[in-house]
Specification:
There is one protein chain. With about 475 residues, this protein is an alpha+beta fold. It has 15 helices and ten strands. A hairpin with a 2-residue loop joins strand 1 and strand 2 (about 40-45). The longest helix is centred in the C-terminal third of the chain and has 39 residues, at about 400-435.
């Protein structure tokens, strides 16, 4: 685009029509018109720009008279585009990327550069409270699929010049936008530099599954260890709190959640309700969650071990023995229930809302009452598995819940085969997986327990009041 005559403008126009394949894609549009007697055209994506905005844009351009037309592109931008977010560009790949991202690109005869006018309006839902991260008290907004809206929700909570939102693009075909949000004066600079290098070094065609694809690209080792290295949240207040504590929130366009990193297992177990209640109540909720999380892992393997060694059960615990005759071995009852519950969970996800309640009632009756009466399951095994399923939702991380499930299944099988030695090995293997896991920054997954930091360790279990600053 070095020449300024009509022939070169027409060549440029035809070239971008071919590059953008406007004849093949109905949503890639262009509009030809005159600005100050000069041929002009802009390219845009239908659906990313509102019609009324395009009409106002066109009306303002066609009203420019020939004698008022500036001689160079910079002056035109200052006089007629000063109220918009505009950049000038002449690199073809950057222009095409912006068009496909929803930016309106304007070409004017006689100017060597194109104008990138950012007046995008992506389709988006409301910022209602997320289904998974509900709280009893606190804000009711949540992240959406638009990355700009998500960064705005964080910026609304952190009005500091130190808050930095950097944006990167990943994927040769998808060109997915990724935002890295952090506090410049609090973040670990070495970890931040390494994270950005990893993002820039990703060579992939597209982030098909959004954040999960990014997570697998950032950390490719240790696939056998199910314990999560990232904390996911759909709550802007949780993301903002983590950023203020020196963490990094990674937002992926088209994904309504944030990845918090680096994070330890204690970070993953934290929940917003811990801070929306007074310190005593928050401490109780936190300790209850830790205890219940441990019980979801060891309850059924411990019961199976005691059933295989009834002489270990004291008289005051005799009620844990099955009241009915055992038709199916307990190990098979527990394993079948593990998979049956996952099947019901998958069915609930794919069931329309209008049918979810009646089908849940039917499933509860069949698996609860009829399954016991038929002799397939004992009521005790149903009771303990019901507690495990419900208790699994006491902590906010799906990934941690499945990790504990896998460890529980391994421990159950080992207990059945090797009894007390298998039980001990299953518990030790779980502890090994937790200890062997590392955060993305390479630090201990069990910090502040290891390496030990007494003050931080106490804060993980005891919810202290927020520090007060004196008025000066």
């Amino acid at each position: 685009m070095s020449e300024t005559n009509k022939t070169d403008f027409q060549n440029t126009f035809n070239r971008f029509k071919k590059l953008l394949r406007t004849e093949d894609s109905f949503d890639v549009l262009y509009k030809e018109f005159l600005i100050g007697g000069r041929e002009s055209v802009y390219f845009f994506i239908n659906g990313f720009v509102k019609d009324d905005l395009m009409q106002k844009l066109t009306a303002s351009f066609v009203s420019i008279k020939k004698e008022n037309m500036p001689s160079n592109a910079e002056e035109f931008s200052k006089e007629y585009l000063s109220h918009m977010e505009v950049e000038m560009e002449e690199a073809e790949d950057i222009i095409i990327k912006n068009v496909l991202s929803g930016v309106v690109v304007l070409f004017i005869e006689g100017y060597t550069k194109a104008y990138l006018i950012d007046c995008r309006s992506y389709p988006a839902r409301g910022v209602e409270e997320p289904e998974k991260d509900r709280v009893m008290r606190g804000s009711r907004d949540g992240f959406v699929e638009t990355i700009v809206s998500n960064t705005a929700l964080i910026r609304r909570r952190i009005r500091s010049i130190e808050l930095t939102n950097e944006i990167y693009t990943v994927g040769r075909s998808s060109k997915t936008d990724i935002a890295v949000c952090y506090m410049r004066d609090r973040v670990d600079q070495e970890f931040l530099k390494g994270l950005i290098q990893r993002i820039n070094g990703i060579d992939i065609d597209s982030l098909t599954m959004n954040q999960e694809s990014l997570a697998e690209c950032l950390y490719r080792r240790g696939w056998w260890n199910p314990f999560p290295k990232y904390k996911y949240t759909e709550r802007p207040d949780t993301a903002a709190a983590s950023i203020l504590e020196g963490g990094i929130a990674v937002l992926v366009d088209n994904s309504p959640s944030a990845m918090i990193l680096p994070c330890s297992v204690f970070d993953i177990l934290e929940e917003a309700d811990d801070y929306y209640f007074p310190p005593v109540t928050g401490t109780y909720l936190r300790l209850s969650r830790f205890l219940i999380t441990i019980l979801t892992m060891i309850l059924t393997p411990t019961w199976l071990l005691l059933m295989k060694n009834p002489e270990w059960v004291p008289e005051w615990l005799a009620f844990i023995f099955p009241a009915e005759e055992i038709q199916v071995p307990l190990i098979w009852q527990l394993i079948i229930l593990e998979f049956a519950i996952d099947g019901l969970r998958l069915a609930a996800v794919n069931t329309p809302n209008m049918l979810s309640t009646p089908l849940s009632v039917i499933a509860g009756l069949v698996l609860g009452d009829y399954a016991v009466q038929s002799g397939w399951f004992n009521s005790e095994s149903m009771l303990y598995m019901a507690f495990v399923v419900l208790a699994n939702y006491s902590q906010p991380s799906f990934e941690l819940g499945f990790a504990l499930k896998f460890m529980r299944l391994i421990t159950l099988l080992l207990t059945q085969v090797f009894q007390v030695w298998g039980y001990a090995f299953g518990v030790l293997f779980t502890i090994f997986c937790v200890c062997q896991n590392r955060t993305l920054s390479g630090k201990s997954y069990l910090y502040p327990l290891f390496p030990f930091n007494g003050r931080e360790f106490l804060r993980r279990f005891v919810r202290i009041s927020l520090p007060q600053t004196e008025n000066k």
